[in-house]
Fold:
Amino acid sequence: MAIIGNPKYQDRIQHHLGKYETKRSAVMPLLYLAQEEYGWINQQGMEEVARILDMDPTQVKSIAGFYTMYSEKPKGKYWLQVCTDLPCALRGADEFHAWLKDELGVEEGGTTDDGMFTVEHVMCLAACDKAPMLQCNFHYVENLGQEKMRELLAQWRQEAAQLASG
Amino acid sequence: MHILLRGREIDNIEQLEVYEEHGGFEGLKKSLAMSPSEVIDEMKASGLRGRGGAGFPTGVKWSFIPQHEPLKYVTVNADESETGTFKDREIMEKNPYQLIEGSLICSYAVQAKAIYIYLRGEFWDIGTQLDDCIEQLRQKGYVGENIMGSGYDCEVYTHLGAGAYICGEESALLNSLEGYLGQPRVRPPFPAQKGGGLYKEATVVNNVETLANCPFIMREGAEAFKAIGTEQSTGNKVYCVSGHVKKPGNYELPMGTTFRELLYDHAGGPLYDDRAFKAMLPSGGSGPIVPLSDEVLDTPMSYEHCANIGTIIGSASIIVMDESVDMTWVASKVTKFFKHESCGKCTPCREGTYWLDKVIDRILDGRGSPDDVQRIADVAENMAGTTLCALGDFAANPIIHTIKHFPDDFAQHVQAASAGGD
Structure:
């Protein structure tokens, strides 16, 4: 596993390097590629990004640590980020978030034993009129309730099982 | 009439051909036939003010860019992260070409070499959509070299953030785009000046909604835009309504519409019929909270009128709370947001938000003393005006104004505790 030399990423690396005046500007998009490859921002990913951009790995690490969307530890296959900020909380998001953790048997930020789901709460996701809502692997899922959420969890389990067997 | 949320009236306007059929790129075409300074004059005449929150006159901002500098940039602030704000998202999802056209009008007016659209990282899908739009525009000659045969060249790129509210602050946005920590810069130099912008070049930073207004202004003329709204607040505004109303959502209405019309006629009134409105945050988590009195409800939503009721219209992210809501809890929620989002650079904000959060939690838990209420007010007063960017003031606002307007909400938590002494 690597991003350097991996044909899957070469076009995108070149695209990002071509966008900016400096190599360093590409650190954020390249960190996303590292996360795509390894599932989180591990040491190898940071070192590869640093090598591509002529940066020090420590500088890359400081960037990765500053932003919440770069994961500093492995997550479940489905990373569920529930908005519990004020507008969502006024429409039941805190209760929904607590219920979801119970339903999956995880603590805040925890991952289910089967490695399927990580649940955490996040700040405003700009979907306040569609609360409760969450982001699943950076895609919005809105107007949620317990019934709809149970269906989605079943659907994602099925999807993962199909991928594993296929 | 919608100027911005045109996706609600025109099906498929997110497709280039449909956008073109409905006047798309006529504003850019007109601009390219004018001199850059004439475009800036038109923008000044329209009275358009920045929709990101600060309300600075857009044409004036553009006029700060030194014409003689060879290298200039435009950055679009699409970091939409203010609590309660979700207007730029709808504009970009449903009317993306209008944002890009507006950005190109701006870039031509200041003769920029490139446009960077800085999206919050969570707008991952919008980033993909905009990349597709840009590619289509390049193929049709609206982006790249010799735009529409005018001889003017400009590239457009998207850049995804990665979850940091602070990157909506313009100098932090520029740092983030350069691959540094998204922390505010010391100013001057300001972004519009050589040395202060992207890669140290003069740079315009404008909000999505601001730029999305520009095609209309150039196509229909400044007078048509000025005919909408109030004298000092021209045009339409997209108001984001959330919280305890029946119909939360975006509503595009003229500036100067009253809060009452927005909250009752459009947003359907209180969510629960047996509960009255108590308060609102008219500018997301960062602006001063106000009780929803009749006087406030009858206030026109404009830059000038909101000042009279002790708040701001800002980004117009109106979070509505009914009488069931404890304002100490609201102060806690908003404080947790700012504690999480403080970038850590300035001590008053980094330490202040940490202590505010701790003491409010203590008050909420019934372990606080009456002194604690004064304590958080003092901490907040000491944060205001002492930081490099406005986040320090934003974090102080919810404390100062909830205590000012709703002292009883705090008192109820500390009365029992006070019996035991401090």
